[in-house]
Amino acid sequence: MKQETAPTGWMSLGIDAVSLGVDTAAVIGLRMATFSAGGPRAFHEATRMISEKFEAVAYLQMELVTGGLGSNPATIAHRTLRYCSKKVKANRRRLG
User: Fold this and answer.
1) How confident is the model at residue 43 (pLDDT cuts 50, 70, 90)?
2) pTM for this prediction
3) For 7, which DSSP code?
4) Is residue 22 one of the residues assigned to a domain?
């Protein structure tokens, strides 16, 4: 079996994780502002937030057990971060 390598290495993975953390903090702040305003928009956002979490967990679990994320820990981590980053960036654009 061919050995997988991390797409760009562990240093890049760390930078991507920090970037995801910054974007996540921004989304949390934007969501808190929405929640503090109350009303139907806040309820819709809370419902959406919870459903996104369940969808992401289900998708990533299925990808992991079927080998869709790879077999090398670095590759799995990189692909997981990439998936999560896309979702968080989309939320940041939508909320911002």
Assistant:
1) very high
2) 0.85
3) S
4) no
